[in-house]
Amino acid sequence: MPAAYSITVTKQGRDRHAGNKTGAAQPQQQSHGLALRDRRHLAVTGVSRVISCDESAAVLETPLGNLTIGGQELQIGELSTQSGQVQISGRIEYLQYAENQQSGGGLLARLFR
Description:
By secondary structure, the chain is mainly beta. The chain has one helix at residues 107-111, and strands at residues 4-9, 32-37, 41-45, 49-53, 57-62, 65-80, 85-98.
C-alpha cells in the first residue's frame, strides 16, 4: 500500500491577530498545508503566488515563507490563485522553507527612517 503524508501548518503567535497602527485587527493568516503521495504527487494549499517553476525546482509563496520544492521532471498540474491550491507532480526530492523577506522600500524610504 503506498504511503501518503499530509501536513497542515498554521502560523501562530502574536502577529496572528496583531493590530495595525489604527488599532484594528488584521485578518487571520490563511492556513497552509502539504499532502505528499509516493514522492510523486504534492498538493499544496495556502499558496499566494508561484515565484518560479522549472523541471528541477518550484518556488511558491506561502503565509509561512517561500517554499522550494526540488526534484526532477516537476510540473504544475493544477493552479488556482483564488483558492491558493497548487498540484505538483514529478520526482520530489526535497521541500525547504525560507522566510519571506519584506521589502524595505526604496532608497529614500530607508534613508528617512
